[in-house]
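User: Can you help me understand a structure? I only have the sequence.
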Amino acid sequence: MARKTREEALETRNLILDTAEAVFSEKGVSRTSLNEIARSAGLTRGAIYWHFKNKADLFEAMMQRVFLPMEEFAQESAQATEANPLDRIRNTALQVVDMMVNEERARRVFEIVMHKMELVDDMLPMRDRHLHGRNECIGKVESDFQVALSRNLLKSHVKPHEAAIGLHAILDGLIANWVLEPAAFDLQAQARFTIDAFLAGLTAQP
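Assistant: Let's start by predicting it. Here is the structure, written out as C-alpha cells:
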C-alpha cells in the first residue's frame, strides 16, 4: 500500500509540473498563480503545497526535469576521451542542440525560461540559479579551451575565458531565437555552421 501511495504521489507531482509547464507557456510565469495551476490540474491548492513550498520551488523542479539530465550529459561529455578538446567542445554544444530539437519538453521549458519569466518578486531566487548554471557551463568550456591552448591548438592570442563566453553567447542566442519561431531556420544546421565558423577563427593553422 505504501508503494502505491508513493507512486500516486509521484503521478500527482508530475501532473502538477506538466500543468505548470502548459500554463507558464500560455500566460507567462509572473501572471500565473498556484491557484491557476491547481485548477488547471484539477487539484486543490493544498495538493500543490504538499509537493512544493511556493511558485519558485515549483519552477525550480520544472527546470530540473530538463536541466538535470542536460547537466549530467555535460558532465559525461567533459569526461569524454576525444583527443582534441575542441572536438569535445563542438560535440557537446551540438548534442545540446540535438536535444533541444528532438525533445518537446526541453524546447518548451527553454522558451519559458528565455521569454516568459521575469526575475522579480518570488522568482528572484531563480536569478542565482540561472547565473550558477551559466557560470558552470562557461567554466567547463573554458577548461577545454585552456587545454587546447596548452597544446597549441588555438591561436596564441586566444583567451580561454573570453572564448568560452563567446561560444556560450552563440549557443544561447541561437536557441533563444529558434524557440520563438522554430520554422524560421534549421537550428541544427545553423548551429553546426556558426559553431564551426567560430572555432575555425580560434584554431591555430598547422
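Now, to help you interpret it: Residues 119 and 126 are 7 Å apart (CA to CA). DSSP finds nine helices and no strands in the chain. Let me know which part you'd like to focus on.
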